[in-house]
Amino acid sequence: MATSQLFDVAGKRAIVTGGAQGLSRGMAEALLENGCKVVLMDVQREKLESVCREYREMGYEAHAVSGNLADRQDLNRMFDEALEILGGRLDVLIPAAGVQRRHLPEEFPADEWDFVLNVNLNHVFFIIQRALKVMLQQPTGGKIINIGSMVTWFGGTTVPAYTATKGAVSQLTRSLAVDCAGRNININAICPGYMDTEMCANMSQARKDETTPRIPAGRWGTPADLKGPVLFLASSASDYLNGALIPVDGGYLCK
């Protein structure tokens, strides 16, 4: 295969969860811009439909499926609906939806703990489980791109549930890769650093001022910074990569 074709994803069919905003939208946009048919999922119905309408007006094949990924029954309904839109084929899955709640550990509410685990970890596993049953029947297999975090390697301040789930997603990625690498399925994870998205909007300015100087790149990341890694992991260029955790952090972990 020519090098120019290695990163080609035109014609692939994909699902991206959390696609109404932030990093998820940026990753979906990368696939759309390069010829994929993409179903974006999110709980924010109006925002999601607006995003997809905007992309369709640009000539992209973007479709919206809204619902509650934290609810197992609704997740299954959403997956079935998406698969029908995609004509029964699924080449790329990015279960990127995630939430964060900030409390000191001794004050963390149990209901918020459960909510973070259901979105950040449980939805990831159960939608992957559904996707594998499709991908394993396809001669072309499939690509699954999980979203970890820098807190895979160190603790986060006042985010014990988020840290626990992202560490778990990273280990889940490795475990699933062991089971699937020999069956034409690639499962890897992108681990973003500090990103200028809605999720970090509730950080104090003091914490932001403390964080920025430690980033060797000199700036926070943006959703556009994930486009290249996503195209790599969704394409034939990554056919021999499995179980990898790829930091996209401007060098933060190196300093």
Gyration radius (Cα, Å) is 17 Å
Arrangement of strands in the largest sheet: 3-2-1-4-5-6-7
Compressed to H and E, one letter per element, the order equals HEHEHEHEHEHEHHE
Characterize the largest beta sheet: strand count, sense, and whether it forms a barrel: 7 strands, parallel
CATH architecture: 3-Layer(aba) Sandwich
Morphology:
globular
- Do you know the CATH topology? Rossmann fold
Distance between the termini: 38 Å
Q: Return residue spans where pLDDT drops below 50 for at least 5 consecutive residues.
A: none
**CATH superfamily, please?**
NAD(P)-binding Rossmann-like Domain
Number of strands: 7
The total number of structural domains is: 1
Which quaternary structure do these chains form? single chain
The share of residues in helices is 40-55%
Strand content: 5-15%
Count of alpha and pi helical runs:
8
Estimate the mean pLDDT confidence.
95
Highest CATH level, the class:
Alpha Beta
Classification by helices and strands: alpha/beta
Protein model, in words:
This protein has a single domain, classed as NAD(P)-binding Rossmann-like Domain (Rossmann fold, 3-Layer(aba) Sandwich), CATH 3.40.50. It contains eight helices and seven strands. It has helices spanning 3-6, 22-33, 45-57, 72-85, 110-135, 160-180, 205-211, 227-234, and strands at residues 13-17, 37-42, 61-66, 92-94, 142-147, 185-192, 245-248. β5, α6 (160-180) and β6 form a beta-alpha-beta unit. α2 crosses α8 (227-234), α4 (72-85) runs parallel beside α5 (110-135) and α5 runs parallel beside α6 (160-180). The model has no long low-confidence stretch (mean pLDDT 95).
